Amino acid sequence: MLLYARQHIDEDDIAAVSEVLRSDWLTTGPAVDIFESAVATFVGARHGIAVSSGTAALHAAMYAAGIGAGDEVIVPAMTFAATANAVLYQGATPVFADVEPDTLLLSPDSVRQKIGPKTRAIVAVDYAGQPCDYDALNDIAAGRDILVIADACHSLGASDRERPVGTLARMTVFSFHPVKQITTAEGGMVVTNDECLAARTRRFRNHGLSNTHKERAVAGSWEYNMVDLGYNYRLSDIQCALGTSQLAKLPGWLKRRAEIASYYDCVFSSSGFVIPLRRRDRVKHAYHLYVVRLSGAARSICNRQELYTQLRAHGIAANVHYKPVHLHTYYQSRFGTGLGLCPVAEAAYERILSLPIFPAMADSDSRRVVEAVLAVATRSGERQFCEC
Ligand SMILES: *Cc1c(COP(=O)(O)O)cnc(C)c1O
Questions:
Q1: Is beta strand 171-175 parallel, antiparallel or unpaired with respect to 188-192?
Q2: Which residues in the chain show pLDDT less than 70?
Q3: Is 255 labeled as catalytic in the residue annotation?
Q4: Residue 328 and which of 5, 84, 248, 350 are 20 to 30 A apart at CA?
């Protein structure tokens, strides 16, 4: 089965992890600092705080932003549930905003409509790997007591007019789950230029303690003090060593992702059967996902379920990202959300499919995907595809 995403682990990665296993530190040792600086430097941010998952990073960002009971946080409907769940972890209320129909990125117009007196933050999701319109979102937040946070779990390595993801919002959150650009198995990071937000995030990942074991060692003191309620959201040295080793390969992997995407773009744009998402002007896309929408012509001969099933029969495990969060049972039953709240995301959900894209894919793999999709299209009898 060709999966929609897959990690790539080589001998360097294995050696990096083995080295930590033979060292004095398995967790919160030197490898954490090295990974944090490497990621922060890569994205051009001052501080990086490694945590145990992208979800933990979102939760920590909510805490650092001071989000609590009575607050509202705007999130896109088209995202993984964790984006909205992190708001709930802090006792606040997620407010679902709609997305743009051609990019599925958070719509600034919808955000403007959803802002109210209780809005304290906007979490923008760089869907599929391209940055949202942070200029517009930051403008909306400016002059109000609203913090813009980037859920960049899809977009490590992307940029907007040469400005890297990691610098476009006050805080940016990454995930290192195996399907993402680089992996630490489970893992995540918050990056920010803000000293205070960074300090709060560090404290939150370590039980809300006022100092770390390293600071106590330097001070020659055993004393610690819990000043707020935090969690154990630490990332281990074993995982951070893997992350640093992976990061070195990221630029090449991004190039390979872009190459596969441009081949797909070329074939599918001319097919009229499935439609690629629009890429925003002057954006460098990180292509975590390659998402197509079934065209009207496609829907006259098959539905998304049928295309999904046919691809599986060809050994291709496509996927759907995402069922809009407000349509999940938990949100519907607890918050009374449902159909009609975010019509663009809801309509997109019926038509989207994520096709395989990952750096280790061979050209023969992407050709196989194209041929399988076009084989279904051929049934429509209007096959006119250009060679790419
Ligand atoms: C992957 C992902 C997360 C959660 O990351 P984990 O590391 O799996 O916890 C959050 N938001 C988005 C948009 C994601 O894709």
A1: antiparallel
A2: 380-386
A3: no
A4: 5
